[in-house]
Amino acid sequence: MIAVLDTYTRRQAAVQEALEQVEVAQAQLSQVEAGAKLGQIRAQSRVVDRQQVELQTETEAQEAAIARLKAELNNAELEARRYQVLYTDGAVSASLRDGKQLTADIVRQQLNGSQANLSRNQRSRSLISLDRFTDRRLYQAAGITGVASVSPIYLNSIQWRNPENKEIWDIYTIGINPEHQVLNIAGVEANREKLRQPDTVLFNLGSRREFGAIAERFQSGEAITTEINERQVQIQGLFKLSPTFGINAYLVTSDVNFLRMAPFRQGGLVDVGVIKLKPDADVQAVLAEMRSRLPDDVKVMTRDDYAKAEVAFWSASTPVGYTFDLGVVIAFIVGSVIVYQILYSDVTDHLPEYATLKAMGFRDRYLLIVIFQESLILAVLGFIPGTVIALGIYQITNLATMLPMAMDLGRIVFVFILTAIMSSVSAAIAVRKLQTADPADIF
After folding, report:
1. DSSP letters of 329-384?
2. Degrees (nearest 5) of the Cα angle 206, 211, 217?
3. From CA 252, how far away is CA 204, in angstroms rounded?
4. What are 275-310's pLDDT values in tens digits?
5. Which of 109, 165, 409, 437 is in the most buried spot, having the most CB atoms within 10 Å?
6. Are 249 and 160 in contact (CB under 8 A)?
7. How many Å separate Cα 187 from the centre of its chain?
């Protein structure tokens, strides 16, 4: 029974590998049936086979290392327990016992690290923290009904030398297949053919000044050459893509040029895969089939789901989101206090009038409605100029940082609702003085 359990996992992995190879073969067959050139398919097949062997070899080596560390950990724990008993009996010193326990702890940490490396895809959370996967997953996806094409994308920060002051900055580089329309950006699509040339890149118009006045010089007709990872490259075009909180500048190049500029990257291990569907394909059906057929080492998402995941990452998993949320809370509290002070002063100044109304028989509910109406009028009168000022600040921030700042209708409505709630809370607090006012005491 022990022998059966010991080989079950490896045999199961072998079966899974065989199934994946069948899917790759089916994808290649689909490409042939669709009219692809047989020579290209055979070339892709050889690349896939080589990558499968490399990945299988790497996986087996990691599994072997994990098995070895498990055995070492078992021996280390047995040794640590034995020396604990000997220490209790007074046969060994405390230093010997602690040394054995330390050895067990070190082996346990090594085992945890190896296991984490074997299943590292679970840590992918954002564009700046992606883990790589083999591009054979894309070839497997190409064989699914409804898929029109698949394209790998390489992403990595690479050292850029400012051609003006020779300073070195990390620039986020995107490697694409120039044969496919992957990035829906005007500048990239217009200059995509130029990326077929060796050592050519497209530079981002939205890059910060630290990377040099590349756009101005290129638009004036100057030929610009610089170094990326100590490799000379030439700027062949411009495109516009705004920076983010984690990325200050972008480059776009071909996948072949990317691997030349980043020799530390292994070809075939990609960061993102773009899958285009046929016009008549059912998106949800294809998505469900991909998720059922592809292994767990990749995540399959639509473009909208990916955008939502990116926003959720920055909002919930980074200090940036916490800072903005804290700013909203502080603004709500400060605004409530200011509106309360205005309403409280108004109630105090007109307390005789309110007391007269109470003496005439008006109930507190009527007076409360009057105060709430006043608070809502204050909210509207303050919201209109506040929105105009906010739009101006957004524009200034965009010009200063080049970050994409937009005040859409949904955000405006949300802020107005918060403003109304803030004014209502302040009115409810301010009206307490009016409720306790006695007309007899005032007159």
Report:
1. HHHHHHHHHHHHHHHHHHHHHTHHHHHHHHHTT--HHHHHHHHHHHHHHHHHHHHH
2. 75
3. 8
4. 999 888 888 998 888 888 888 778 888 888 887 877
5. 437
6. yes
7. 24
